[in-house]
Design brief:
The chain is of the alpha/beta class and 263 residues long. The chain has 2 domains: 160 residues, Alpha/beta knot; 66 residues, Trp Operon Repressor, Chain A. It is 40% helix and 16% strand. The strands form 3 sheets. A 5-stranded parallel beta sheet has the order 2-1-6-5-7, with helices on both faces. A hairpin with a 2-residue loop joins strand 8 and strand 9. Ligand 9WO binds next to strand 5.
Length: 263
C-alpha cells in the first residue's frame, strides 16, 4: 500500500504549479514518491464552445465570477480519480474569507493526509466563485492572511509546501521540521554563517564558543525576545516553562538597562 500524500488542484492556470514541482524540497519529495499532484483545468469542463468558466455578477459591479457548473464537474472528476486510491476527499478553497491558517492547523491537515485523505485544492480567479459552489462542494475555506492576491494558486501552493515539508523523509535533516519556528509557539532566533565579521558586524560570540548548552539557551532567549517585540499575542497563547520564565526576566532586565542609556 502506498502512503503518499495526494493533492489535486483545480485551476485555470495549471502551469503555475511548476513552481512547486520544479524546485527545492517539494521537487525532491515528489521525485521520491512522497506526494503526487494532479492538475484539473475547469476550462476542460466548460459548457460552451468558447470554454469560458466565468460570467458577470448578478447585482452588477465590476469584474467576473467563476460559474458553479464547470467547477463542480471539475471537482467531481478529481474526486472520482482520488476515490480510486482514497477513502475520502477533502475540498479546500483558498480565499481571504477563509479561516486563518496556523501551524496548528497545518499539523492537523498533515495528520488527515497521513491517514489517507486526499486534498482537492480549489484556486479561484477574478472576483471569486459562485457561492452555491462553495456551499455544495467546499469542506473548508482557508486564508493565508488579510490580503488579496490575483488568484488562489499561490495560496494553494503555499499550503501544499507547508504540508509536503512535514511528510516523513521530505527534509534531509529530519530535525529541521521539529525545531522550526512556531513548533514551540515562538518566532525563530537569528542565524549567522561565514564570514565571522560582515561589513563590520560581528557574529555573536556565544555562537563561536562551542558551548552547546549556552548556545541553546541564547537561541531560546532570542526567540523569546523577538516574539515579545514582534508578536506579543503569541506569548499569551501558551505557558512559559521555568527556563523560559527565567530568560524572560533577563530580557526585561536587559531592556530596563538599555533604557538607562547603558549598552
Ligand atoms: C477581487 C476583487 C476585486 C475588486 C474588489 C474586491 C475584490 N476581491 C477580490 C478577490 O477576493 N478575489 C479573489 C482572488 C477571489 C478568490 C481567489 N483569489 C484570491 C485568493 N485572492 N487572494 C486569495 C487568498 C487566498 C488565501 N489567502 C490569502 C489570499
Amino acid at each position: 500500500m502506498s502512503n503518499k500524500a495526494v493533492f489535486d488542484c483545480v485551476s485555470i492556470f495549471p502551469e503555475m504549479f511548476a513552481a512547486l514541482t520544479a524546485s527545492g524540497i517539494t521537487r525532491k519529495a515528489l521525485e521520491a514518491g512522497l506526494w503526487s499532484l494532479n492538475l484539473w483545468n475547469p476550462r476542460d469542463y466548460a459548457e460552451n464552445v468558447w470554454r469560458t468558466v466565468d460570467d458577470r455578477p448578478y447585482g452588477g459591479g465590476p469584474g467576473m465570477v467563476m460559474q458553479a457548473g464547470p467547477l463542480e464537474k471539475t471537482i467531481a472528476a478529481a474526486r472520482a480519480r482520488q476515490q480510486a486510491e482514497h477513502v475520502t476527499s477533502r475540498v479546500i478553497y483558498l480565499s481571504p474569507q477563509g479561516r486563518p491558517l496556523t501551524h496548528v492547523r497545518v499539523m492537523a491537515l498533515s495528520g488527515l493526509l497521513a491517514a489517507g485523505t486526499g486534498f482537492i485544492l480549489l484556486s479561484g480567479r477574478y472576483e471569486g466563485v459562485d457561492e452555491r459552489l462553495i456551499e455544495r462542494c467546499v469542506d473548508e475555506e482557508i486564508s493565508l492572511g488579510d490580503f488579496v492576491l490575483s488568484g488562489g494558486e499561490l495560496a494553494a501552493m503555499a499550503l501544499m509546501d507547508a504540508l509536503v515539508r512535514q511528510l516523513p523523509g521530505a527534509l534531509g535533516d529530519t530535525a529541521s521540521a521539529v525545531e522550526d519556528s512556531f513548533v514551540a509557539g515562538l518566532l525563530d532566533c537569528p542565524h549567522y554563517t561565514r564570514p565571522e565579521v560582515y561589513e563590520g558586524r560581528a557574529t555573536p560570540e556565544v555562537l563561536l564558543s562551542g558551548d552547546h548548552a549556552r548556545i541553546r539557551r541564547w537561541r531560546l532567549k532570542m526567540s523569546l525576545a523577538r516574539t515579545r517585540k514582534r508578536r506579543p499575542e503569541l506569548l499569551t497563547q501558551r505557558a512559559l516553562s521555568a527556563e523560559e520564565t527565567q530568560l524572560m526576566a533577563e530580557i526585561l532586565k536587559d531592556e530596563a538597562h538599555e533604557q538607562c542609556g547603558e549598552h
